[in-house]
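Supplementary Methods S3. Complex input for the flavin-adenine dinucleotide-bound model.
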Amino acid sequence: MAISFSFTEEQEDIRRAAKEFAEKEFTHELALECDRNEKYPMELVKKCAKLGFHAVAIPEEYGGGGYTPIEQMIVMEEFSAVNPGLALACLTPIFGVEILLLHGSEEQKEKWIPKLCEGKAIMGMANTEPDAGSDSASIKTRAKLDGDEWVINGTKQFITNGSIADFILVTARTREVEDWKKRHKGISYFIVETDREGYKATKIVGKLGIRASDTAEISLNNVRVPKENLVGEEGKGFYYMMEFFDISRVWVAAQAVGIAKGALKLAADYVKQRKAFGVPLATFQYIQFRLAELATKIEAARTLTYRAAAIQVETGKPDSMLSSMAKWYAGEVAVETCDWALQFHGGYGYIDEYPINQFYRDAKITEIYEGAKEIEKLIVARHILGVK
Ligand SMILES: Cc1cc2nc3c(=O)[nH]c(=O)nc-3n(C[C@H](O)[C@H](O)[C@H](O)COP(=O)(O)OP(=O)(O)OC[C@H]3O[C@@H](n4cnc5c(N)ncnc54)[C@H](O)[C@@H]3O)c2cc1C
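Predicted complex, serialized as structure tokens:
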């Protein structure tokens, strides 16, 4: 049987539509304003949601596009190639929704997912804490059952949409474990509506990149949620989180591929018009070779990324090793491409008026969130060595 490496006509239509939307709406002025002022582009996000770009892969029964993760990644790639910060703000109002889709009760899904699809609600997911990031099983947040309510206490760090969301999926320890090695057991997910008493979000300012995206520290001080806000089974949260990362890492890989693609285009456009020593920079073979090398790496990252997604779609299950490989490699290629693209802009690249400046800063996050690149490599190595 032949292997297909081409996208379908429908996928190409989605790509075209996403590219057109981004090129029209992600204006230079808006990108600069949101980047400089760390402003969340609420109007743009709502406009984007009206067209359903953020909910392409959500089942139709909940108001989504009913496509697969591949089509959502195509949107992510095209948006990120135009402006990574605005792209992220537009596509993350549903960040974490896979956990609800896979493990939420029918009531929870019906209550929230249609609103998310319509752009009438924003969600987030809070795992990371001040002292627990890569080691996400070491969380200190606790949830204790008191009658018909769970009482949650703790602090969450770096939470996307933390200060603008309507609800956040929060991990908390519901059962103590004596053996530290078993700390991944006894963690659960809760829906925490952000208007509950005791929920406080403090927007984090001063981020290096993706400054249009909202990031907050969240404190949960005796926040009471009804029993029904537990998502899935009590004590299974860590497994849900790992399953989610296997899915979300291919989104980040697609984001990184888009960033690299966009940066390469900025570099190619620039070296064609900028002259030095009497000729366009593009005339220098050194620069041509570098562009060729980067383009090849981007294509390799892209193939790996969509292969990871295709396997997930075909088998109905993410491939943990491929997702990790894709995210690590595509992130590295994005950072490397942006570095060279800025280099070719010379001093102008150092100024934020030039879009490559934002790309350079935005790219770095792909090597940090959804698992730092070292965690990705650990996962790959564990698969190679057969270690659990
Ligand atoms: C802008 C932004 C948005 C984010 N959004 C969210 C969100 O919505 N929800 C959420 O829960 N979290 C979010 N995060 C948190 C992010 O996932 C964590 O920052 C990331 O997992 C790393 O955790 P940490 O920062 O605690 O770093 P640490 O765990 O302290 O690690 C620091 C560094 O040490 C190295 N390292 C760690 N462990 C190992 C190891 N075993 N072997 C080798 N090297 C290692 C890595 O280089 C790593 O970068 C966000 C972060 C940022 C910056």
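The radius of gyration is 21 Å. The longest strand covers residues 149-160.
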